Structure formats: C-alpha cells, structure tokens
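User
New here, explain this?
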Amino acid sequence: MTKTQTNTTSAQPEVVFYILNSSDLTSREQFMSKLLKKVVSEQRSADVVFETPTEAQRYDLSLWQYQPQSFIPHSLSRAEQAPIQLYAQTVSKPCFDILLNHQTQFPEVFSQYQRTIEILDQTPHLIEMGRARFKHYRQLGIEPQVHKIGFKTA
C-alpha cells in the first residue's frame, strides 16, 4: 500500500500508546517531535491532530525550535506539501499512514490510517481520557500496544 492509498486491506489498523513518566506538556511534545523525526527518517507521513488551532500553531513554532540542525518538514493544515501535517480538530486530507492523536477525544478517523499513536503523560485528565480511548479501541476489537517511557523497572 502506498502512502496515498486508503487503508482498504483487511488488516486492522495498529494502535500504539506511549505512556510517559512526566506530567508537563513540554516533555510530551518533545517526545512527539522525536517520533515525528523518526517518521520523516523512515520516509513516512503523519497527520497530527490537536484540540484547537492555537495548540496546532504553538506546536508548529516548537517544531521550528526542535533540533534546528535537523528540520522536520511540516505544515499547518496542508498549507504546504510536507510529510507532517498539523491539524486542529479534524483532518481535511488524510495521509492514510500515521495518525498522531494529540486530542483527548477518540479519533473517529483512526481506521483510515495504518497506525494511530496516542501519547499520554501522568496528568490525571490525560490518563482518564486515555483510558477511555484505550477501552474504546478494545471494544472495536483492537488490542493497543503499550510502551511505558521513563519508568524504572523493578
């Protein structure tokens, strides 16, 4: 399947939860930037969905600051052609490859993508809403992968 085709295969989309051992927005967004850098290095594409236009614009500015020596090509709502597209609330033209959900709501469009990524930190509201999304994926017959980042193992 190419990056521009619809996910019409019988395979279910992959869902991955990253749970960070932090509770600040900066750490969460730095981790997201690291993932997006990897997406670009693998010559894949991703749509990142935020709650509000203000959040998308603020993250757009932070991407310009993230490792300036290795630019992550991105754009707000397809203003430019780039492998990483930042959206507020809804995706106008899905890339069909990776969806990075930065909203607290369940991303109804997740089935259009090969992979959906959810990043949670230890903020109580994010954990609560993330658990609800996790349960929703399970109700749809999808078993999300979970990766805990920054936790000490016993």
About this structure: The chain has one domain: 14-149. The chain has a mean pLDDT of 90. The longest helix spans residues 25-41. Helices lie at 25-41, 53-65, 124-139.
